[in-house]
Specification:
Leucine-rich Repeat Variant; 0% strand; single chain; mainly alpha
Length: 322
């Protein structure tokens, strides 16, 4: 509450015309209210007694007003004290509550992926600043359950702070659960700074898990690593790549959109009827703006394909021409 508000409340309570009230109002920049007419003594009542009663009433009102003013001044002082509290203390209290929410979601971490409550939590933890990243990094490395460690990696990816890279790299090296390591490799790939390239390069060539290798290769390819670009293409074409995994590699290729992938994308348009493969290939050709693919895209746009595929092909052809 401002001092002007305190003065206004004080002036509203104190009887007008009292010198102290006027003085306080002037000191606080508030004009005193007009003085009301004094009530005339009752008929037959001695003037002296009436004046004495009036003075008692004014003293009571003044005492009440002073008490209220003191209370308002205390409230003002408390408000100012809270404004001076170090931001770190308030952030810490907020972070504690956010971490409680995190613990609740970690009990069913996989099911939380993409859920609105997780997205909201990520936004709040991001706003909490470096302290949140530090605590999540600790949980990624020291969490007691795989759900806690997995969710920590997922949230760190969503926050996108490069300060998390060292912890994510340690997770890749020391984590025993493949799913958590896949999450850490994906987070490193999505954060995507030059500091990610070292751990990604090691993982894409030396990790025992297929998913970690592909995630790492995608991240390194987006950072311009030619070896990673070639590795993704080899992985997609390899006979020992499980069929359910092939779309994941193709998606990584479409997102990287390297020119060397264009022949593979055009071949898919010419031979495949799988909607996922067609849409990913169309997206990759559109992103790389491959003009040589326009005839293939127009053929698909006018062919016997699902409407979603035809519309995507027509849109891609138009975008490439622009």
């Amino acid at each position: 509450m401002s001092r002007a508000a305190v003065a206004g409340a004080f002036a509203a309570v104190v009887a007008a015309g009292i010198a102290l009230g006027a003085m306080l109002a002037r000191q606080r920049g508030v004009a005193p209210a007009p003085e009301p007419a004094r009530p005339a003594p009752a008929v037959g009542e001695p003037a002296g007694k009436a004046l004495e009663e009036e003075q008692k009433r004014l003293r009571r009102e003044l005492a009440d007003a002073l008490a209220k003013s003191a209370r308002l001044e205390r409230e003002l002082a408390e408000s100012k004290r809270k404004e001076r509290l170090p931001p770190a203390k308030e952030e810490g209290e907020t972070l504690a509550k956010l971490l409680q929410d995190f613990d609740g979601l970690a009990e069913n971490a996989l099911a939380m992926m993409g859920k609105p409550e997780l997205r909201a939590l990520i936004r709040k933890l991001k706003a909490a600043g470096p302290a949140a990243v530090e605590e999540l990094a600790r949980r990624l490395l020291e969490g007691k359950t795989t759900g806690e460690r997995f969710l920590a990696g997922l949230v760190l990816e969503g926050i996108g702070d490069p300060a998390a890279i060292p912890a994510l790299a340690k997770s890749l090296q020391g984590e025993t659960d493949d799913l958590v390591r896949r999450m850490s490799s994906h987070a490193l790939a999505m954060i995507g700074t030059k500091d990610s390239l070292g751990p990604l390069g090691e993982a894409m060539s030396g990790d025992a898990d297929w998913g970690v290798r592909v995630n790492a290769a995608y991240g390194a390819a987006t950072l311009g690593d030619e070896g990673a670009v070639k590795l993704l293409l080899r992985q997609y074409a390899a006979e020992d790549t499980p069929a359910p995994y092939r779309p994941a590699v193709l998606q990584a290729m479409a997102m990287v959109a390297h020119a060397s992938y264009a022949p593979t994308f055009r071949q898919i348009l010419a031979t495949s009827r799988d909607m996922t493969s067609l849409l990913l290939s169309i997206g990759g050709l559109e992103k790389m703006k491959d003009a040589s693919a326009i005839p293939d895209l127009e053929r698909v746009a006018g062919g016997d394909y699902p409407a979603t595929v035809r519309e995507a092909a027509a849109k891609a052809a138009k975008k490439i021409r622009e």
